Amino acid sequence: MIRLGPRAKAFLPTNSVCIFADVITSAQEARLVEELAPVLSSKPYLRSHWDNVIVGYREVDRPVWQSQENEATVAGIRNIITEFVASEAARSGLLPDDPVCRPLGFTGEWLPAHVVDLAEDGFITPHVDSVVSAGGLVCGLSLLSTAVMVLRPQDPNLATDLEARVEMLLPRRSLYVLSQNARYSFAHSIEPKVDLVFQAPNQAGSDSRETPDEMLAAMAKGAKRERRISLILRDTVDGAPFGEQPHEALMRELKKEAARTHRAGNKVK
Description:
Layout: E1 2-4, H1 6-11, E2 17-20, H2 26-41, E3 54-62, H3 68-92, E4 113-127, E5 138-143, E6 147-153, E7 166-170, E8 175-178, H4 180-184, E9 186-190, H5 213-220, E10 228-234, H6 248-268
Antiparallel strand pairs: 1-7, 2-8, 3-4, 4-9, 4-10, 5-8, 5-10, 6-7, 6-9
């Protein structure tokens, strides 16, 4: 479900981009949508956003769920995330609650769930979630529709470089988790269509993070971006989130690699 451009591979830690498939059942999805329907349907779809990030959307915060079943479902998703953080802590030799070197930048406390209802023709332009109001993790549960998320380097000179981008197929009822460089140094977007999958050129060799091309093609075949509800889960900021500042070194290395590739191409000519 993940395709990394050759240059993106070198600068994204293995655990910074993850997708978990089928984290909830179709019945759990239906109950979440049923509870959200009245409050969402009372709002019109908006064609502009205060920071010009989203087109064709309506949104609401959900600090408390009316249904105990839905409360348990959301708690279960958060448990999947915290268990993932704990496993990465064990792998790296860190303590899950280490106040200095937090695994994946996770602060341990959650903001209220944020719900974004994206119309069938809606989309989310490339952006980085605020480092002032949210911590080291940006996670999202996809409801009602498959979608494509693309990560692009923040540097405008590299934003259109296919070899430096990451393309993610987000199946319905899947959960994505962005952390570290993927959260801070790459802008993420939700594309208006699924059939653009997948443009990043492939690189010889295998990468355990990637889904084979033929499998991606099969997953994307026939998929259509319909109305999509995303449940966004982010942790709080407590004053010292790991990696709060964008990784300038990453941007410098990407520029150097792009320049080397350009020079090599000119020599071939």
